[in-house]
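Appendix C: a fully annotated inverse folding record. The material below is reproduced so that readers can follow the format used throughout the book. The structure is listed first as tokens, followed by the designed sequence.
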């Protein structure tokens, strides 16, 4: 379940968005040591044209998850809080072609240490639009 909003400036050169969501992941196999996951979160971001052929984009997110079953190894119910941030550019270098470098940082805090982590993901995408 979620709610989203998007605002595009009248000049069409930039936009901002936000979303709120909540949900449940069911452990249908019964094999997940922590059981079902209930989660809620929010995300905000935007995009802005810097030049005719260059756009910047970014987003921030937060997500909290709680689990229904006591983890037998750690004798507690697992609770996670995940933070993420993404930033990058879209460079339209030729008609119908674009290059997108992107950097994403993710940090997961958990009351069970083996589920906590930090991740940095750098990617570069090449895109061709067929129209």
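Designed amino acids, in order:
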């Amino acid at each position: 379940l979620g709610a989203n909003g998007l605002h595009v400036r009248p000049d069409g050169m930039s936009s901002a968005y936000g979303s709120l969501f909540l949900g449940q992941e069911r452990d249908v196999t019964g094999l997940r040591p922590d059981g079902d996951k209930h989660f809620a979160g929010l995300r905000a971001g935007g995009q802005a044209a810097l030049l005719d052929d260059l756009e910047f984009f970014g987003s921030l997110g937060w997500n909290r998850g709680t689990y229904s079953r006591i983890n037998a190894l750690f004798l507690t119910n697992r609770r996670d809080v995940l933070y993420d941030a993404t930033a990058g550019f879209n460079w339209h270098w030729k008609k119908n072609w674009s290059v997108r470098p992107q950097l994403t940082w993710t940090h997961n805090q958990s009351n069970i240490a083996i589920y906590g982590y930090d991740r940095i993901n750098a990617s570069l995408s090449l895109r061709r639009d067929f129209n």
